[in-house]
Amino acid sequence: MKRLLVIMRLSRAKLVSLIKALFTQGIYQLSAFTPRSNKAVFGSYKNRFTDNSKYLYLHWRREAFIRCIWISGDKALIKRLQAQGHEAYARRSLQGIYHCLTAKYYFYSSYLGDINQHLGKGAVKVNLWHGSPMKKIEFDIDSGPLTEIYHSHKPARLHYHQQHIRPDLMLSPSVQMSRCFQSAFRLKPEQLHRASYPRTDYFSRYPSAATPLSQLIGHPFKQAILYAPSWRDTGLKKQASQTSPYDQAFNWAKLSASLRAKGQVLLLRFHPNEAHLAGRYSHFANIIDISQREDVYDILGQIDLLITDTSSLFIDALYHGLTFRLYDLDSGKQSLHQQLEQAVTAERSLYDYAASLPLLDKTRAHHWHLKDFGELLTFIAAGDFSVKAEEIEDYRQLVETYWQADAPSSFGALEQWMRQTSGQTHWVGAQEA
After folding, report:
1. 212-402: same fold as 26-130+166-196+409-421?
2. Complete DSSP assignment for 291-319
3. Exposure class string for 61-92: b at 16+ Cβ within 10 A, else e
4. Which of 125, 163, 248, 409 is the most exposed place for a label (fewest CB within 10 A)?
5. Is 341 helix (H, G, I), strand (E, B) or coil?
């Protein structure tokens, strides 16, 4: 009897899930028939105000190129944006639903659900993505639990609606990234435009919009170092009593003393899932917790050194010509490629190109890999973060892998594409809409 009840509950759950999936598909298909006007809706992952969609939104708000509307499920964020004079609406509000149904353009950083996965069928969809992949993404995934999402049989795909929606356009800053995106999203070559990203272009265009490091730090300093580790999936909850992996990997008192002696500051930027851990170390002098900030793109061009592990933030640092060093809490003696391979054994595999990246292989550039805290402390205290003469060519090749020198600005590339594909003899901007 109990077994029968369990089977009935499972069957009911599957039935409910199927009904929801069919409902989502039905609404999505119907949204193709609503009239759409020359305005754009924007959103980002986990209802946050961040990444490429944020900076494209802010740019066009400044330039009045097109009417821009931010959509999010975070009502507190919506209120904050509205208080700053921006147009923003909650996803399930009447205004949010209306604009999602009637906007011609969708700009998002991950999936259509960043805005509204139910109402975007008739819109022009531009996926600005949120990173430069080293691990395989989307339809390139061939191992791990995510495989089912992209390679399951047709009925199962109903449950992964937004992951199977192909964008009309993506930006790519290099040949290598074009190869990855074209394969991963199953795009035609003409659906990829060579351009940099809004998150890198915004502060080049508006340097005064960046937060001065002196304001953030609050006292004089000679060098600023950003420590931004990736999430290590520790499973730690927000409890102060639990052991932190960063307790064993750092002697915080010794590090603080060295920073003070050298006039340096260390900015801690922990992953959102571990942000609560950074507060344990911010009471040390010259160590500042910035984990609660929306992002670090406004200060990235001002730092002197980035310390990370497998986080792709080092790729954005390359755009600014910054140097970085790799410090992994568990596998410091391995190359980044080996660390990644180990980390994705049960998850996603690496793209082939990632195996031969210069400066990431410890055997070719051991100075870029700090194997323990002692080595980390010595390197920071020395204060020489420059690229060595024998490493300049490797550094240049690494930059070119991700940031092609002739890639135009994302803003100009998108505006030109929208004008060319709009079918309008006269572009109607935000002031005229």
Report:
1. yes
2. TTSS-STTTGGG-SEEEESS-THHHHHHH
3. beeebbbbbbbbbbeebbeebeeeebbbbbbe
4. 248
5. helix
Contacts of residue 163, Cβ cutoff 8 Å, sequence gap at least 6: 111, 138, 149, 150
Q: Which two tokens stand for residue 201?
A: 């272009």
> What average pLDDT does this structure show over 411-429?
85
Among positive and negative, which fits the CA dihedral 35, 41, 45, 48?
negative
The domain defined by 26-130+166-196+409-421 carries CATH number 3.50.50.60: no
Give the Cα separation of 324 and 386 in Å (integer).
9
At residue 345, the pLDDT reads 45
Give the start-to-end residue ranges of the domains of the chain: 26-130+166-196+409-421, 212-402
Rounded-to-integer distance, Cα 353 and Cα 181, Å: 13
The CATH homologous superfamily to which domain 212-402 belongs is CDP-glycerol glycerophosphotransferase, C-terminal domain (3.40.50.12580)
What is the band of 346 on the pLDDT scale with cuts at 50, 70, 90? very low
Of the candidates 162, 159, 164, 116, the residue with the CA atom closest to the CA atom of residue 17: 159
Q: pLDDT digit string (tens) for 162-199?
A: 888 999 999 999 999 999 999 999 999 999 999 999 99
Tell me how far apart the alpha carbons of residues 115 and 374 are, in angstroms, rounded to a whole number. 46
Mean pLDDT within 119-124: 94
Which of 100, 69, 97, 177 has the alpha carbon at shortest distance from 407? Answer: 177
Q: Which residues contact 206 (CB under 8 A, 6 or more apart)?
A: 59, 62
Find, among 124, 92, 122, the residue nearest to 108 by Cα. Answer: 124
